[in-house]
Design brief:
Elements lengths: L1 E3 L7 H9 L11 H12 L6 E7 L5 E5 L4 E7 L9 H16 L3 E3 L2 E3 L3 H10 L3 H12 L3 E4 L4 E4 L14 H4 L14
Parallel strand pairs: 1-3, 2-4
Antiparallel strand pairs: 3-4, 5-6, 7-8
Helix pairs in contact: 2-3, 3-4
Bound molecules: zinc ion.
Zinc ion binds next to helix 3.
Length: about 190
């Protein structure tokens, strides 16, 4: 999801609490800044916005928050801050959040949507592996990941800290797609 920091609406409190969470040292095994650089060249090649990355226990699986000072912060939930989180999961999330810079929120049927129909068209083009990514996320975190239609986000329940997760191998999902049905857009 995407939010301009100065806009006042029902999400403000949530974003403020998100930003106030302690930032964690990344435990991941990839260069996330390098990943962002390569994807922004194809998704937002004209944009000069500076994009930061933060890992925090922020309630949402991921989101991007833009400031008026010309930078944006991608928040990754702490549950993803693990060396065994597949690179493809980070890749999809980075792509999704950068598309929020490319495709602004707009009103659809009288309601402000941060994921208007054209957003999903762009996501299909830029992130062909998104189906596998969602299967990985749902399969690994099924007991704590929930979709919030109203806020257009995927939340991580607080109880996630009580459990030790095993981060399954990516290839299990690539090889078993026929097991899954992907009938809904999932939101970040
Ligand atoms: Zn989103």
């Amino acid at each position: 999801m995407f939010k301009k920091a100065t806009e006042k609406n029902k999400l403000d409190n949530w974003f403020d609490s998100c930003k106030d969470q302690p930032h964690e040292l990344p435990l991941i095994s990839i260069d996330i800044n390098q990943m962002i650089s390569s994807h922004r060249m194809r998704i937002i090649p004209e944009s000069l916005i500076k994009v930061n990355v933060v890992f925090a226990d922020c309630g949402s699986l991921a989101c991007i928050c833009k400031s008026d000072e010309g930078y944006a912060t991608i928040f990754f939930h702490s549950i993803l801050n693990n060396a065994d989180t597949p690179v493809q999961v980070f890749e999809h999330i980075v792509i999704h959040e950068l598309i929020h810079i490319r495709v602004p929120s707009r009103e659809v049927d009288g309601k402000m949507k941060s994921h208007p129909p054209e957003f999903w068209e762009e996501e299909k083009i830029f992130s062909p592996e998104r189906i596998y990514v969602w299967e990985w996320l749902i399969d690994n975190f099924y007991d704590v990941v929930r979709r919030d239609e109203e806020k257009e986000m995927t939340i991580v329940l607080r109880k996630w800290r009580k459990k030790k997760y095993t981060y399954k191998d990516w290839w299990l999902y690539i090889n078993n797609l026929e097991r899954y049905k992907f009938d809904k857009e999932m939101v970040l």
